[in-house]
Amino acid sequence: MCAYGFTVASLDLQGAAGNMATVRSRYAGTAVPVKLTGSQTIEYADFKEIDASGGNANVKFRKVWDGGGADDNWSTVGNWEFDGELPGAADEVVFDGTSVKNCTVDIDVAVGKMDLASGYTGTVRLDGVKLEVSGSGNITVAAGTLAGTSGTPSEIVGGGKVESTGGDIDLVNVLLRGFSTAGVKNSGGTVTLVNATVVGNAVGVAHVSGTTAVRNCIVYGNAAQVSGSPTITYSDVEGGFSGTGNMDKDPVFKSPDRGDYTLTVASPCIDAGDPGDDYANEPEPNGGRIDMGAYGNASQAAITIPEAEGISDSQ
């Protein structure tokens, strides 16, 4: 042990979700640098600061949103408990009663899992970013709201699943892909998907209980598209699904093998969304009607060309 930190050659520090092991400096405002050597496993622990430059990959921290920063941005270090550092790709991120302040995810982020837990009443809003969940980690919304930003498409990449167990999932202009359980699952809350593209998941949309409404969406290319009985309208669902304005047609994505799920001008999803929804953010000519999918009513929407079938993807 030294005055400013310690080097660890052998350590077994094990907490549990909701019951952390904590290492802090005894001096207010002083960081605790911890140097790892060897092969330690540290889970559910809070440090003021850590130097894991030794290459240890088994370090998982529980990062709690305390809203102490001057703004509501994820990227502001002062908004996270102990003001140490931003959440990392292996970390458990928690929004709970510590602070009910809203959070704007303003940068691309990767996390181990994310919980909007009991006591949180704010909104975590994606603002044109990529949120990646590593391994089989989940995004669980037990309270508060997980939201997208209209006209500013974001991407959520899995991971296990995005699930409401009591809170609100209100995602607009969002691409959901790569989840091993479900792109989105409702187990007792309220799920609203508007202009989402749900692709490459084990199940696209899973409804168990609660209220699930899907509109202007593309649910295509999942191992299974829909389970349960959500309300789906004006959407393209592979294999078909009963509902006003629904269809079952190849959405003709631009370059899905490179992760580009915008629509080509030949897509049947252009000008096929709810005729009552706003389309003002789509580039001209836009056909006077919103597109289906994550880029409807956004600047990335495809232009409308009458009788566009057969036009090459490069146009």
Labels describing this entry:
single chain; 21-stranded parallel beta sheet; globular; 0% helix; 25 strands; mainly beta; disordered C terminus; 315 residues
Compose a concise summary of this entry:
The protein is mainly β and 315 residues long. It is built from no helices and 25 strands.
Give your account of this protein's structure.
- The chain has 315 residues and is mainly beta.
- It folds into 2 domains: 1-57, no CATH class; 61-250.
- The protein is 0% helix and 38% strand.
- It contains no helices and 25 strands.
- The protein has strands at residues 6-8, 12-14, 21-23, 34-36, 41-47, 59-64, 92-95, 103-105, 109-111, 113-116, 123-126, 130-133, 139-141, 145-147, 154-157, 161-164, 168-177, 182-199, 203-215, 218-219, 224-227, 231-233, 236-237, 253-255, 260-263.
- It has a 21-stranded parallel β-sheet that branches. The chain has a two-stranded parallel sheet with strand order 1-4. It has a two-stranded antiparallel sheet with strand order 24-25.
- Mean pLDDT is 86; it is low at 1-7, 25-33, 48-58 and 308-315.
